[in-house]
Amino acid sequence: MESWKEQLKSKIHESELSVSEISDKTKIPSKYIDAIQEGKFQDLPAEIFAKSQIERLFKFLKIDPNNALRDYEEFISPVENQDEEQKIDIEEPIKEKLLKIFDIERLKNSYVILGGVFLLIIFSSVFIFYPSDQINDTNLVIENVNYDSLVSEISEVTEGINLEETDKTINLGNTEEKNPAPNDISRRIEIIIEGESWIVVFDRNERLLYELMQTGSYEFSGLSPLRFKIGYAPATDLFIDGEKINFSRAIKGATNYAHFWINEGNKVESIRD
């Protein structure tokens, strides 16, 4: 059975189109078509573009892209796992610092001292309030405090603290969130480059893109509002949900650099750097 790479090369050959011609028709840069053919995923652009370009190329040639996409997912997964390991490595020292702040051993010793004082008070009360002849007839049952168990519970509480950062502030009076997030509005973004240009894109939650982009069409999505930094505006066309965006008034004079917001109504608001 042919691998997806062999199938792709065969279909390109059958199409009687050059890589350059396929690039013109699909708006995928030639170097990325070559990289996909060879399975050199490391040569592809950012993940948000790579997947769409693989899918676009395969659909153009009427091939099922699932096997190629699965191999690409396997290629990027070690990077994701490494990021998770780094996150754990960062969190562990924080937990250790928290445990030092709580000083479990010191707390344990404090409970021992307090327990001793408590027992002393009980015995003193017995001798003060009970006649001496009744003390021997009095059955006093004093349970041992399991200090190790108590310390273990304290440790569990501190280890259970959520160390991840959050932007949400909770109002303890009525348990409602302060500044609740607006409704998510996902926008389809298409950037067409003729030549090359640095492109930086932020959506409501995060930076989506920071890359030197070259001739081609790039599609991805993000949540409104959107913020763009475009290094070379003359080489860049921008479409939001299929509508071409005119950001000419946001271009900074002769530098051809543009920095602007786009709101839900596709209104451009220039940002002064």
The amount of beta strand, in percent, is 15-25%
Question: What average pLDDT do the residues reach?
Answer: 75
Radius of gyration using CA atoms only:
32 Å
Integer count of domains: 3
> Oligomeric status of the shown chains?
single chain
Compose a concise summary of this entry.
By secondary structure, this protein is of the alpha+beta class.
Describe what you observe in this structure:
By secondary structure, the chain is α+β, with helices and mostly antiparallel strands. The protein has 3 domains: 4-75, Orthogonal Bundle (434 Repressor (Amino-terminal Domain)), CATH 1.10.260; 103-163, no CATH class; 186-270, Immunoglobulin-like. It is built from 8 helices and 9 strands. The strands form 2 sheets. Strands 3, 4, 5, 6, 7, 8 and 9 form a 7-stranded antiparallel sheet that branches. A two-stranded antiparallel ribbon has the order 1-2. Helix 4 packs antiparallel against helix 5 and helix 6 (104-129) packs antiparallel against helix 8. The longest helix has 37 residues, at 66-102.
